Write the structure tokens for this entry.
Amino acid sequence: MKIKLNLIPPQKKEAIKRAHWLRLVSKWEIEFVLLLVFFIAVLVSMNLILKVNMEMEANDTSLAEKNNYKYNQIKEYDSEIVDVNKQIVNVRNLQANQLYWSNLLLKLNSKVVNGIEIVSLVTKEYDLILNGKADTRDNLIIFKDSLVQDDCFSGVDLPLSNLVSKDNVEFQISFSIKKECLNSAIK
């Protein structure tokens, strides 16, 4: 058996108890503060992570909007290009089917001899009727023969009634022009 003697005065005992409780409370306070600091650090880091994620999401959204805007611009440009290409095809088709009546006028100009005056020119598809005046019947016959000899003209018809007068002959010549002579532009 052991006997314990407590020779500490009651005031000292009270001071020891207080010191013990003070150390215990201080230890709890330190642990509580450390736990609180830990939770605050976790909350701050979570806040930082959330901010970074929000900024990345905002950047992704703005990037997606920019890309969507660019994509829409590209679609608009593509549709404009398609429209322009259609217009170009239409113009090419018009040009391919274009009849160049200036070719006819140049050919007629080269066939008209001095003393022949063309008063009117009437066309119906590829058929033409020329009305005019010739100073002599011989010039009119030369004009008719030059039309007959040209490969672009066919079916040249000068009625005999136009050859009755010898001078100041009013005439009407009808003929057809070949389509090939009107299809190509003058070079």
